[in-house]
Fold this sequence. Notes:
The protein is an all-alpha fold. It is built from 5 helices and no strands.
Amino acid sequence: MAFYGCLFLTILWFLFMTYLSHQDGEHTGRVSLELAEHLRFLDADMNDLNGKLRRAAHIVVFAVFTLLLGLTLRLGGLPLGWLLVAAVWSYVDEATKPWIQGRHFSWFDVGLNLVGTLLGGVMIWIL
């Protein structure tokens, strides 16, 4: 039962992160600015804060995805080598951006995604 619950959460998170990642440039910019507005107390410079939040989002969503995927694999008795799916998605997620209005491919963002994947993998290894 725990396996199926974790699998459900992993799929749900994957869909959520992919939805966020594949919104048009205008919408994703508006959402991040609204979040920065709510967190204004962290940094007086809204543009700086917005940039930091956007970079952190890549790391956080991929770390959570990798952690959930790793837990699902462990609970299912499957090899952790399947965590490479998260690393591959780190690239594919960015490679599909040019098809979305106002978005573009960024190697820097691929790197941030991979950092998140690595952090999630380390958390699985520690657990």
